[in-house]
Write a structure and sequence with these properties.
Length: about 325
Amino acid sequence: MDLRSLPKIELHLHLDCSLSYQAVSKLAGPVSRAEYERDYIAPARCTNLAEFLSRAPKGFVLMQSEDALRLVTEDLFEQLVDDGVIYAEIRFAPLLHTEGGLSAERVVAIVEEAVDRQARESGVQAGLILCTLRHFTLEQSQRTAELVREFSGSRVVALDLAGDEAGFPLDAHTGAYRFAREHGLHRTAHAGEACGPESVWETLRRLEPERIGHGTRSIEDPQLVEHLRRERIHLELCPSSNVQIIPSIGSWVEHPIDRLYRAGVSLSVNTDSRMLTPATLSGEYEGLRRVFQWGTRELLDTNLMAAEALFADSQVKEGLRQRVQAGYAESHMLV
C-alpha cells in the first residue's frame, strides 16, 4: 500500500511548530542535524504538555520578519505536497510574531497571502486558524478573535485556543469565544490532552467549539464519548504527538483512536506539529495500519469525516470528498 500517494486531509497542524531542518538552517544560521534534533524536536516521551511546549519558542522566535514568515509557510507546503496532503487547516498565534516590529494585522496578512499563493501554486487547498493561547490575557484573546473576524472571507477560517491546558483556566477566553459565536465565526479548541475528560466537558460548555483539538482523554468517560458521537463533535487526533505528551498513553497500542472510531465518534488523523513531533500523515497511517490493523476503509472514513468537519463551504467539502474517494479508487485501495 503506497500511503504517500493517498490523498489526505489534515485539520490540526501548527505552522510555528513545523519548521523543517532546512528551514531552521536558513533562518538560524549553520545548524547541524544533531543540533536540530536536540534543540527543536521535543523528547520522545515528555513528562507533560508543558515540557513539550517548552520547545515551541525555538520555532516562533525565528518567525519575526516578513521574509521568515513567508519562508516557513513555503517550507510547510513543501512538506504537505511530499506527504500527499490535498487540504490542510494550518494554525498559529499571530500575537507571538510581533517582536520584530510587525503588527498582529500585518502578521496575519503576510501569512494569509503566503498561504493563498502556495495553495494556488501547489494545489494543496488550505485554510488558516488563528490561535489564542491559554496564558494570554483577556485582551489578547479578544484581539485574536477580532483578527479572525477582520480577515473573514480570506484564507482565515476559525479561532482556536491552544497552550498549557493544565496550567491556565478558561476564564480569559470565554469572552473571545462568545464574540466568535456572536459573529458566526468557526471555532475549535484544544482540550483533553494535558487534562482528562472534565476538561473537554468544560471546554464544550463554556466555549462551545465545533471541534476539539485532540480530545484524546475523552475515552476515559463513556458518557462523554456518547455525547461526542451524538452531537457529531469532531476530534482532531494526533497519535504520535499524544503518545509523546500524555503520560497515561504509554505507547501506540494504548492510544484510544481505534476505540473512539469504533464507538462512532467523528475524528481525523493529524500530525499536530512536524518539528516538535517529527511526524508525517503517511507515517501516522503506517502506525495505524501496524498497530490497529487499519485498512483502507478506516483511512478513507476518517478522511471523509475530516472533509465534513473542516471549516469551509459545502462546495469545497464535496470537492474534497470526491478527490479523496477518487484517489482511493485510482490506487485500487477502496474496500
